[in-house]
Specification:
Blueprint lengths: L8 H5 L7 H21 L2 E2 L2 E2 L4 H50 L7 H23 L5 H7 L2 H7 L5 H18 L5 H26 L4 H26 L3 H22 L12 H16 L16
Antiparallel strand pairs: 1-2
Helix pairs in contact: 2-9, 2-10, 3-4, 3-8, 3-9, 3-10, 3-11, 4-7, 4-11, 7-8, 9-10
Length: 307
């Protein structure tokens, strides 16, 4: 995800990184060349003057703008819901780490090491959800954070975050059997695990249920039909300015279509998708600091990839 402070108006005109222009530049060039050709032919095809009135495009453009606004709202709702779910994951992870570190009364000398094992499982959970949503293995983070026997258990698993939740549940149950926590603390810890499970289910719902394909096809077709017929309706009234006006209108509609398609899948790795790697780093750094684990233990070189 591209995040930057807003610059001055002139710089904003020429920003390339994070813009969808590089995705649609070929389409815009084709429309520009097509518009120039129509201008040269004065709106004729084989001596036949295409009789299109600008009023028609006003009506169609208004309807198209309303429909694209609806699709944009639906896409942004998916994007924002995904961000709220990952925000919940940050909060629940910190709360669960705090509860484990402060509420489990284990007098044994190995208490700190056991708690560190749990904290690392909590960090691994975030990374595993990240890579499940992005259809990657994320093996380097699992082997870095989990014991070898757990890594072996996860081999061949399809829902690794759920399996890691199982590991954490077993760890908490063991603390309960050893009478290191009472029923009230057990209930609180279980609530936080349920919050993590809720996040997994919510993210899977977004990832596995895209926008209806019929909406995308209808919007995509209508935008391009509109842009390619527009030169015939404006050539007589605008003259040599027609290609520039058509290019501007086409940029608006085609760019919005590209943005809608991009943010509708918020867990991808495109520039405007959610910064899952950064959020996972935030979770890991936060819970490790709570546990007092030195930074050098969890920031090895070449481990993280910038979103």
């Amino acid at each position: 995800m591209i995040t930057r402070q807003r610059t001055n108006w002139l710089s904003m005109l020429f920003i390339w990184k994070g813009s969808v222009v590089k995705k649609i530049v070929v389409q815009l060039l084709i429309i520009l060349v097509f518009s120039l050709t129509i201008l040269y032919l004065k709106g004729k095809i084989y001596d036949y003057k295409v009789p299109l009135n600008p009023t028609i495009f006003t009506l169609i453009g208004l309807a198209l703008a309303i429909f694209m606004g609806f699709c944009n709202t639906a896409s942004y709702d998916r994007y924002w819901e995904g961000r709220k779910l990952w925000g919940t994951l940050v909060i629940a992870s910190r709360s669960l780490a705090r509860q484990v570190l402060t509420m489990i009364q284990d007098p044994s000398p190995e208490s700190k090491e056991r708690k560190i094992v749990f904290i690392k499982m909590l960090a691994a959970f975030g990374w595993s959800l990240n890579y499940q949503l992005r259809h990657k293995s994320g093996t380097e983070h699992l082997t870095r954070l989990l014991p070898a026997e757990q890594v072996n258990t996860l081999k061949g698993k399809r829902y690794i975050p759920v399996a890691i939740l199982g590991f954490m549940g077993e760890w908490i149950s063991e603390q309960n059997r050893k009478h290191h926590i009472d029923t009230i603390v057990l209930t609180a810890l279980d609530h936080q695990l349920s919050q993590l499970s809720h996040v997994v289910g919510g993210c899977e719902r977004i990832s596995n249920t895209p926008l209806p394909f019929a909406y995308s096809v209808l919007m995509h077709r209508t935008v391009y039909f509109y842009c390619f017929w527009l030169p015939f309706g404006l050539v007589d009234s605008l003259g040599w300015m027609m290609p520039l006006i058509v290019l501007l209108i086409s940029y608006t509609f085609i760019a919005l279509d590209a943005i809608i398609q991009e943010i509708a899948e918020p867990f991808g790795e495109e520039e405007n998708d959610l910064p899952l790697n950064s959020i996972c780093r935030t979770i890991e750094h936060s819970v490790f600091e709570q546990a007092g684990i030195p930074c050098e233990e969890y920031t090895p070189a070449n481990t993280y990839v910038i979103d």
